[in-house]
């Protein structure tokens, strides 16, 4: 069916997805009366690899963070990643080759500026993870000098995959979880799925409504700059319905 509203209005969409995208919010305005209001500099929704890295990067930049986890930090796809991570760190490799392989592997439909950013950031992301304590497989042999072991992946012109045994994601999440838990500027709200995003009159996301599963309560969280502007916060309305990848129904989330 065709989507009737939203930025993708007019696009064709699977009816089940469309039903979620155009659905009414799960809660009404009155549900929020008296709900606890949390404020913070940065709100991170989801504690997988991306969320944990975002939270740590935000506190490195001096921000206070609230991390809302559907369950707990690390209950995520990240822990299931086995194969490894690509980064152009080999002497015979280059950022240009990594970029070319990625664009080609994506049949030329990937956004080139995003691919370029990812490829450029990859070596420093690996260094950052090693700094946090992540272990990677090293090459064997007397001459290896403990260099990072690199495997070849389909579609790559040189070996570029860095891994740790067959549980790279689990090892990555181990160090990210430790770093988040040791960081005093990150407040973790476990079992607090975001069930609606808040938007202002310009359609910008200004926060989220979280469901406190244990106490069966809603709370709402607005990060800077809105939290210190009561007038702007008052203008927030529930507008964005959850996507299927988020917790549409808290009772059935895993
Ligand atoms: C079996 C498997 C093998 C893979 N192998 C590789 C590999 O070898 N190399 C590779 O690069 N990639 C691999 N991937 C893909 C990779 O794991 C993911 O792309 C990556 O982990 C995504 O990270 P993320 O932090 O964005 O998402 P996730 O790790 O999924 O984290 C998302 C987090 O958000 C939480 N969340 C979701 N909705 C809400 C909500 N409404 N409120 C609060 N929290 C919410 C979830 O519970 C979860 O904790 C693999 C994936 C799988 C499943």
TrEMBL record:
Its cofactor is FAD. It catalyses: L-aspartate + O2 = iminosuccinate + H2O2. The keyword Oxidoreductase applies. This is NadB protein. The keyword Cell membrane does not apply. Keywords: FAD, Flavoprotein, Oxidoreductase. Gene3D superfamilies: FAD/NAD(P)-binding domain (3.50.50.60). Its EC number is 1.4.3.16. One of its GO terms (molecular function) is L-aspartate oxidase activity. Residues 41-211 form the FAD-dependent oxidoreductase 2 FAD-binding domain.
């Amino acid at each position: 069916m065709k989507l009737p509203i939203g930025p993708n209005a007019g696009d064709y969409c699977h009816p089940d997805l469309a039903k979620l995208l155009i659905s009414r919010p799960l809660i009404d305005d009155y549900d929020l009366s008296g709900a606890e209001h949390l404020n913070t500099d940065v709100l991170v929704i989801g504690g997988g690899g991306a969320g944990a890295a975002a939270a740590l990067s935000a506190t490195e930049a001096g921000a206070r963070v609230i991390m809302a986890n559907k369950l707990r930090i690390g209950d995520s796809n990240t822990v299931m990643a086995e194969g490894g991570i690509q980064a152009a760190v080999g002497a015979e490799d280059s950022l240009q080759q990594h970029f070319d392989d990625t664009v080609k592997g994506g049949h030329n439909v990937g956004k080139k500026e995003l691919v370029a950013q990812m490829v450029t950031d990859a070596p420093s992301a690996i260094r950052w993870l090693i700094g946090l304590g992540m272990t990677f497989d090293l090459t064997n042999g007397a001459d290896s000098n403990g260099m990072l072991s690199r495997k070849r992946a389909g579609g790559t012109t040189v070996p570029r995959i860095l891994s740790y045994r067959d549980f790279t994601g689990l090892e990555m999440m181990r160090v990210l979880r430790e770093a988040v838990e040791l960081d005093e500027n990150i407040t973790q709200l476990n079992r607090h799925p975001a069930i609606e995003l808040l938007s202002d009159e310009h359609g910008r996301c200004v926060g989220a409504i979280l469901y406190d599963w244990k106490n069966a309560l809603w709370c709402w969280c607005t990060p800077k700059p809105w939290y210190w502007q009561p007038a702007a916060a008052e203008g927030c309305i529930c507008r964005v319905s959850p996507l299927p990848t988020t917790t549409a129904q808290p009772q059935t989330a895993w």
